[in-house]
Amino acid sequence: MEGLPRDALVHTLHYLDATDMRAVALVSRRLHDLQQTHPVLWEALFRLHWNVCNFFMDPSRRIELSPAVGAAYSNPSDAFRFLTHCLQRVPSFADIYLTNAHATSSLLQHRIEPVAYDNGQVVTLALAKGTDVGGNRCVRANMPFDVSPRVSVMCTSRNTWLVDVLYDGYFEISISDACTTTPDAWDHQADKCIAIGVATAAFEVVDQQPGWDDHSYGYHSDDGQFFTDGQPRPFAATFGVHDTIGCGVERNMVTHGSTLYFTKNGVRLDGTFPCNHEALYPVVGLDADYTVRLNCGQMPFECPPPPSAASVEALEELQAQPWAPCHQRKSTCLITQLWRRVQVWLSGGAV
């Protein structure tokens, strides 16, 4: 293969998975050098793995590495190789199926209806089924914000994907009217409630709101209060339809403490609240027939989280961890596949 045209080899490398890409770089100096001079190879694998594990990255938006990641890797190819092998599942979509699985036939008002999907696959817009007040239920994200460092992808207002390694977490919800409204729905506007917060894995998603137990924390729309352990605390103004509310988790790995903060329509609200220093799921409480869109970074945030002060520490901790195995290997011999694709490419056929 050493004598093959450079373009033929680069074209063929685009068809390898992450495991095989690493393997060919180990056995061939030329293939290693091609990966170094063509960072798009590992960038494409990073995008592919992220799309499989999390939300869809629009290919029309370029990737922007954070200052910490960019400083650690002078060659973008090395950065994307590291990120590809270290990324894991993170909060990406609303897990309405968990809520509906806990709703019984006698509690149909607890069910959640999907309204819109991200890339046709996962729910980003959800509607509380029914209009009866008292149907307290919650929608949890598919994954928690873990305490350990993780690869983060966030869409920016610059039309780019910002890739970083973080301990912290942030998400937003946007509230809009129900798709259909019954004539008497407006009679209960004052009784309707949306709550946003985080919860541990022990939190029950049916028959309660975030903050009603000691496993969760929530900012409630109807009275503007912050709840935890069932206790209300005066916090901020009420919110409702046409508002965008955010919730952030900030980790202090020195003191092993975590705090929550909230945002409203692009402005960070005064006040922070201590919370459990453990894995925390984004959670939204619904006692209203509003539609709620969950944004975990797929779209630009109204109030982007500030740069993390511990981004370098998070990156160094993740670098010290062993790389997890990548996706399944191909059943046929790598060299055989590689040679077949080169032969087809050289003959002018479609690969």
TrEMBL record:
<dbReference type="InterPro" id="IPR013320">
    <property type="entry name" value="ConA-like_dom_sf"/>
</dbReference>
<dbReference type="InterPro" id="IPR043136">
    <property type="entry name" value="B30.2/SPRY_sf"/>
</dbReference>
<dbReference type="Pfam" id="PF12937">
    <property type="entry name" value="F-box-like"/>
</dbReference>
<dbReference type="InterPro" id="IPR001810">
    <property type="entry name" value="F-box_dom"/>
</dbReference>
<dbReference type="InterPro" id="IPR003877">
    <property type="entry name" value="SPRY_dom"/>
</dbReference>
<protein>
    <submittedName>
        <fullName>Aste57867_22532 protein</fullName>
    </submittedName>
</protein>
<dbReference type="InterPro" id="IPR050618">
    <property type="entry name" value="Ubq-SigPath_Reg"/>
</dbReference>
<dbReference type="Pfam" id="PF00622">
    <property type="entry name" value="SPRY"/>
</dbReference>
<dbReference type="InterPro" id="IPR036047">
    <property type="entry name" value="F-box-like_dom_sf"/>
</dbReference>
<dbReference type="InterPro" id="IPR044736">
    <property type="entry name" value="Gid1/RanBPM/SPLA_SPRY"/>
</dbReference>
<feature type="domain" description="F-box">
    <location>
        <begin position="1"/>
        <end position="45"/>
    </location>
</feature>
<feature type="domain" description="B30.2/SPRY">
    <location>
        <begin position="95"/>
        <end position="301"/>
    </location>
</feature>
<dbReference type="InterPro" id="IPR001870">
    <property type="entry name" value="B30.2/SPRY"/>
</dbReference>
